[in-house]
Amino acid sequence: MQNLYIIKALAPWMMEELITFSEVSKFKIVFLRKIPEFYKNDVEILKKNGVKIYIRPFDFKLGIKNILFLILFKLKNFDKFIGFQNLIWTIMSMNWFLLLDKKVLKDVKSIHAQFASQAAIIAYFIKKRYKIEYNFTFHAHDIYFKNRWFKTLVKNANKSFSISDYNIAYVNEKYGIAENQITLSRLGVKIPKVDAETIKLKQKCILGFMSNLEEKKGIPFLMEAFKILNKKYPEKFELQIAGSGEDEAFIQEFITENNLLNSIKLLGRIRDEAKIKFYNDINIFVLPSITTKNDMDGIPVVLMEAISYAKPIISTNISGIPEICINNFDGYLIDEKNTEQLVQAIENLCKSSSNYKLFVENSISLANNEYDLVKNSKNKLKEMNW
């Protein structure tokens, strides 16, 4: 008997979890979409560790029993089609379930799916049709709107995992899910070897930002804050931005209009040695996340990475972020969309070497205690009986 991990779309943190799982557990993976070239080396590591990988394993010989099963489901669950997001997820999940090569399910005893969306919905269909149990992990965008699937997924799951205490309280209030129905399973990062004693403020303070360049990351507020700092303290600050996304054009335009070409470095999407260099170079990690319509961050993995490199962090008081950015402990927590507070937080950190040293020590301590990927992965595997 084997276990199966179903994935719709990959993220770097997810691949890190998969590789860590593969070092201590045997399972196979179904990727519902093509794997981006960015993850080519990771896929080879998974295969080397004995993971069987199926990429879009679809069989166009549709089974009549599965078609009838979905027709009956639709008649009984019309509410799952209400709302644009629910409609899209439900239709895509039904199609993928119909097309899924049933050979993939041979000898599968348990399934894990990421996000309370298509992968988990397919796992639900598989349970109802083939009596195979499933677990799933929910994060952010999959619960911060009216997800009509969520209660059904929790009710039928063997285990439902939350990445934060905030999310557990949130689904209790919004969906009426009892807290004892949810299991806390934090994400994490592999903790690098870092000597906190060697991490000190330099004459030029280097600020770092790394994430998808999208609205909920609060990039305009970071750019405006840096503009103020650069004008107030010429040549005192540098900003390194790593990532790609829809806000790239805005960032480039802002840099040009405000003559910041020599003060802001755009690194693009980075990984491996380039990412290690990024964290070693910066003094402070800044992520001014904001709440957008039906979405916000969960607990960004980049914050976990930053504290694992013993970096003080500055972020905002939304979602589960206060569980990792603890005000006056490992950094400063500010109100979202507040440029003035962001400027002040950066100034305070750069002016006090004693506070900076304390935050450095507390960052690495928190990373080791709460966000160790190996430890957290082993605990999750134990909870799933994998």
Produce a short descriptive summary.
This protein has 386 residues and is α/β, with parallel strands linked by helices. The protein is elongated. It contains 14 helices and 13 strands.
* Overall pLDDT confidence: 96
Give the number of domains. Answer: 2
Strand content: 15-25%
**Shape category:** elongated
Count helical runs.
14
Would you tell me which CATH topology of the largest domain applies? Answer: Rossmann fold
> How many angstroms separate the termini?
11 Å
Task: Give the structural class.
Answer: alpha/beta
Corresponding CATH architecture of the largest domain = 3-Layer(aba) Sandwich
Low-confidence stretches: none
By CATH, the superfamily of the largest domain comes out as Glycogen Phosphorylase B
Major β-sheet strand ordering: 3-2-1-4-5-6-7
- Compute the gyration radius: what is it? 22 Å
Output the CATH class name of the largest domain.
Alpha Beta
Largest sheet: 7 strands, parallel
| DSSP E strands, number | 13
- String of helices and strands: EHEHEHHEHEHEHEEHEHEHEHEEHHH
Helix content: 40-55%
